[in-house]
From TrEMBL, chain A:
Domain of life according to the entry: Bacteria
GO annotations of cellular component type: periplasmic space
One annotated GO molecular function: copper ion binding
Organism of derivation: Candidatus Thiodubiliella endoseptemdiera
Positions of the Plastocyanin-like domain: 50-161, 172-337, 482-598
Highest classification ranks of the organism: Bacteria, Pseudomonadati, Pseudomonadota, Gammaproteobacteria, Candidatus Pseudothioglobaceae
Sequence segments annotated as region (Disordered): 438-457
PANTHER family in alphabetical order: FI03373P-RELATED, MULTI-COPPER OXIDASE
Segments crossing the lipid bilayer: 12-33
Protein name: Copper resistance system multicopper oxidase
Keywords for this protein: Copper, Membrane, Metal-binding, Oxidoreductase, Signal, Transmembrane, Transmembrane helix
Keyword Endoplasmic reticulum assigned: no
From TrEMBL, chain B:
GO biological process: intracellular copper ion homeostasis
Protein name: Copper resistance protein B
Keywords for this protein: Signal
Record organism: Candidatus Thiodubiliella endoseptemdiera
Keyword Signal: yes
Region forming the signal peptide: 1-21
Database matches in InterPro entries: Cu-R_B_prcur
Amino acid sequence: MNNKTLSRRQFVTGVTMGAAALAINPSILFAGMRNNITTLTGNTFNLSIGEQSVNFTGTTRQATTVNNSLPAPLLRLKEGEMITLHVKNNLKESTSIHWHGLILPSEMDGVPDISNDFHGIDPGQTFTYRFKAKQSGTYWYHSHSGYQEQTGLYGSIVIDPIDKDPFEYDKDYVVMLSDWTDEDPNDVYANLKKLSDYYNRGERTHSDLMNDIREKGVSGTWNSRKMWNQMRMSQRDLSDVTGYTYTYLTNGHTPDKGWVGLFNKGEKIRLRFINGSAMTFFDVRIPGLKMTVVAADGNNVQPVNVDEFRIGVSETYDVIVEPKDDMAYTIFAQDIARSGYARGTLTPNVSMTAEVPELDKVPNLTHTDMGMDMSNMAGMDHGSMDMGGKPSAGMDHSKMNMGQKPMAGMDNSKMNMSGGKKMSTMDSMVTHADTEFGPHVDMRSASPQYRLDDPGVGLRNNGRKVLTYADLRNLHMTHNYPDPDREVQLHLMGNMMRYMWSINGVKFSKAEPLRFKMGEVVRITLVNDTMMNHPMHLHGLWSDLETGDNMYIPRKHTVIVQPGAKISYRVIVDAKGSWAYHCHLLYHMAGMFRQVIVA
Amino acid sequence: MKLLTITLASYSIALSSLSFASMEDDPVLTKVMGEVEMRSTNGDNPRVWNIDAWVGQDLNKLWIKAEGERVGSNTEQSELQLLYSKAVAPFWDLQFGVKKDFNPKPSRNWGVIAAKGLAPYLFEIDASLFIGESGQSAVRLDAEYEYMLSQKLIISPEIEINIFGKDDELTGTGKGLSTVEAGLRLRYEITREFAPYIGINWEKKYGNTADFSATEGENIEDTQLVVGVRFWF
């Protein structure tokens, strides 16, 4: 209990500091002005959404903020309480707030024209959200209107549990990672449509070619690049929007100074990482400290010690660190494309800082990321595979096998890829519908694998212990988990060059809703037929991830589907209403989106 | 005109498509991209432009291609294409419409069918079939490749081949292989949208086209240094 009193005091300090900062400078929020996030506690909140001048880069821009704060205030709630939030819209356009990861009635979920009876909050209007905090842990909230999330409308939620936390800590900090651009998000989207590699300044160049030739020889280099060249894909297509335009923020602080968290030697610090970015996957580490991951997406997991973890857009991870020395440590969160980083410092003394590591080398996507089953291809002559001119034919291995032939034999070999773990449920057959062919789709994974123990591109064999989904085990046993009644397979698709995104080749505006029956258990299998990670977020219902260990199924609200991979999770359909289900990359969302109706 | 109506109709349908939020997955956008350059020869230096512009959405666009050359105060060559561009494959658009050659005189009108896109190994291709008046026909093949020396310094070889079905003496066009043009340009992307370049351009006329030129006292083959800017917005 003592621990919690301490941690509360920490947050109270945050409130006063935030208030003081606002009193000093009400007009412009400068980077690095405030040390802690503004915190609001209790069960009734007044949130005012408005425009606010900010300056992160040397140029003043308008941001969309809550109570003049970027990030929006931390809301500290108590599990079991009825929460009331009066949200006033002072913008000239419609707005909304979605409480990301919170289990609540559809009417309170805050997605305009999707959530029941909710059509956004008009200018000048106040909407009152009212729901019970049914859960505890680290969550966040953000606008679900237009691009307001990119322009600053995101904040953290901490729900303190009724029962004591199953782990101890002395300090408690939210670390909200985000991406800021001075550009109008509409222009960012237009740039991507006109030139999809607009923000990619990490393409391979002449010097990479020379290095490759030195290492592999001319023919080796040709062969290793052949398929990519034939398919017109870039092995450096890691992130659509990068540090070319983004400034990465930690709790609203630019990396030059960064956010600072204080500790006393020997204390245990709980860091609640939230990825509130529009488009950025971060790889997070604290050189010199082991991190013990204790919760994922707000839900407690069995502690796992790591050096580094990848946090997808809208995921949260709680970690505990225990600095033994009187020295400073850098929280280093580099973006997946290695184009920049967000930075924080844990230090016993504000005057002490730690060295900031170099960005890792820009990685290349591999055949695995293209969904090629390397185990099936062992012994095959790679170079002789004729994919020239008709990539779809080459990639459509699975379609050719589609004629209702059982694929059991193949699937067994695939299963062995995911670390030798056995799924209890039958592996699903990957087939492609007619809608998945055409100018809007540039690839289909040949044989997507479960890659739960794959840390992902850029993190493989990097000498550090990197968290994978296979490491996530629910703190509580899930042996009574009901078996799925049925399976829904969805394909995440797109055409990178045309910058078009869809599910099953059908974009949201042309799609029928997915219909779930109240009370059923649905197994969703997502197949990624693109070259990038997609963080898929299902509103209103939990995504219970099949990691291979059915005794301890971890519970998430957002699930990363790696390029060329597939992943399955179970959904207990226990909440009626209309829900959003989408890729949380902001510029993919308009297309890669479905309405889910539970009746 | 019919094409234009169809295109505009499809825009208005798409514009009303999205209900949630104010996010449009497929907004109507415009893009103008071009290269304008000066070529050095004996005598007046030709100024050459090559401009593409489109307005449209992901899969359907109205596409304009303009190119030409001015020497001194004379427009030696100029043409304009107005096309409907429809995505037919992940990396390919099929384009059809009309072309007018304003210069050299007399002007000529053509119907156009073109395939524009990205071929395997990342070659940018624009292949056009032109159907002219009184049985004339022509084929133009344009291919370009980009090689990145660094993230901003890019060298791009390019080749254009023109073939005609019949002689057209008035415009100095000969049957069969008519002209081949090859260039190598080195550009520096100050921004994504603006890149000055230097390069060389080689041009040769063949067959009857060469003969017509020779009669007029023009060069049949020419190699020129070029300096220009590549831009888009």
